[in-house]
Design a protein that fits this description.
- This protein has three domains: 230 residues, Glutamine Phosphoribosylpyrophosphate, subunit 1, domain 1 (4-Layer Sandwich), CATH 3.60.20; 210 residues, Rossmann fold, CATH 3.40.50.10490; 154 residues, Glucose-6-phosphate isomerase like protein, domain 1 (Rossmann fold, 3-Layer(aba) Sandwich), CATH 3.40.50.10490.
- The protein is 34% helix and 22% strand.
- The protein has 18 helices and 27 strands.
- The chain has an eight-stranded antiparallel beta sheet with strand order 3-2-4-1-10-9-11-15, covered by helices on one side. A seven-stranded antiparallel beta sheet has the order 5-6-7-8-12-13-14, with helices on one face.
- α16 links the parallel β23 and β24.
- Bound molecules: fructose -6-phosphate.
- Fructose -6-phosphate binds next to α9 and α16.
Amino acid sequence: MCGIFGYVGSRTASPVLLDGLRTLEYRGYDSAGIYVPGYSPIKAVGPIDNLAKKIISPLSGTSGIAHTRWATHGAPTEVNAHPHLDMSGTLALVHNGIIENYRELKEGLVMRGIEFESETDSEVLAKLIGTLYKGDLFTATRNALSLVRGTYGIIVIAENDPNTIVTARMGSPIVLGLAVDGNFVSSDPSALLAHTKDVIYLADGECAIVSKDSYEVLSTKGKRLSKKPETVEWDIESVQKQGYEHFMQKEIFEVPEVIENTIRGRLMPGKGRAKLGGVEMVVDKLTALNRLVIVGCGSAYYAGLVGRFMLEEYAGLPVEVELGSEYRYKRNLTDKKTAVLAITQSGETADTLASIRSAKEQSLLTLGVVNVVGSTIARETDFGVYNHAGPEVAVASTKAFISQLTVFVLLTLLIGREKGLSQEEGTRIAEDLANLPKTLRSYLKNTDDIKRVAKKYANYRDMMFIGRKSHTPIAYEGSLKMKEVTYIHAEAYAGGELKHGSIAMLDENFPVVALVPKDDVYEKMISNVEEVKARKAPTLVVATEDDKSISGVADDVIFVPKVHPILQPIVSTVPLQLLSYYVGVEKGLNVDRPRNLAKSVTVE
Ligand code: F6R
């Protein structure tokens, strides 16, 4: 939800700012803008390319700030695009977050005769800082922030002191990048990789004064804080397309490597066990839990539903799965033996974070399964597991979802072996998991069948996904992917639910994608496929390769390798991701940047 970027150094700033924005574009692409002291802000509606076209030759300054927007307050217009200026036109601000009391602040400023151009909450903050600015940008910023309620990651710069930028964080991520030819401020470390791996993550309530050769981290009260730089483990290649047409395609084809990275050093196939350094010290507590509550949003929530199935079925651990946007607002009945586990790729999702904070208020043990190292949820949870999936750039989650399922298998082995999962079964799971990258690598060598069916199914307006047991959440995830990447209206149900209402929608124009692995509910799923065929719905079945009779049952079949049942949902997900991807491409859509979305949902 909005990406902000700032630079102060010895290089020409405008190309550096544009490159930073391109990496942050996944955070929002309603509009973009840059400000280099000495020039007026340059802004454009739509993706960064539109902004780049307006900057015909680089601006001559060596510092500046930039923004890519996911609209919250005010339509995605040029006037509402950041950076916003104060009333003197010489102080500029970019903001990620929401200023909740902006109306009352604005009223006060309007009464003082200050005029506004945009409908945004962010311009209010720019003007407010402007009223308090007497030559010391940090003091003006922190005084303004003391009047603000809401969330922010901001960068501010003044024309008369172009060699200093001030940044502050409350609820929206800010990371400083330290390099030899200057220093950076970004919403996300991925945009820093082209320049440096040395970073400092700001925590809520922290600010920084950043100049070419130095930086200072301070509390909002002005107290100096000593923070050591950390090293980002990602490489620059991980945020480049590397020959693929789209990031989504690259990230799906990276899945074998992602599973390898997720399990590296964590599996003990001989013992049928897993070890996870980040939760090792609380294994006893996890084993003794009355209940584990998994909290997440979107795809991460669906990963949690699959995780529940794994942990209950194989580890005997009672699990509940809650949407972050629900858990945080409701009464949660817990006891001392309840732990709350946040599952999140970005580690910044506002509702998931708020849920963890609410669990902490109840003094519950909190855990995180997080991909982005150093992110807020990774920092605020008591214990956790990193996915090591590498940066996910496409807005629709693919490889991170697979990695989340993989972590749940590891957690199942870890907890399960303490709670009665036999060594033989543990070994079978661990061996199959260790082989999974190889299995999927060979599967991904030929995806022609999926491409072929995608061409056919791209012509429908509606689609339904069904599955049972651990494949019910995979049906949900398949339908979410289809919706967001192709804009096809897609629904998803547990197979057994069809008869209770939703089958009424089906006809020859409403195809059904059925997940039918050869498992203990295979016959039930076959009955569901027959039922939908009887309503003339076209059927596309994802079946395991050992299924010799399925071709006679469904109109189209996509075969997947057969693996241990706990791993089957991981394998079944891959063709669904590819199906959405190929349908999106077939429809000529921007699969990496679906409309109305942003990747990191840091607003509530
Ligand atoms: C869907 C998707 C979203 C995210 C959700 C949670 O493809 O990417 O539904 O899964 O916004 O994001 P994280 O995992 O960053 O908390």
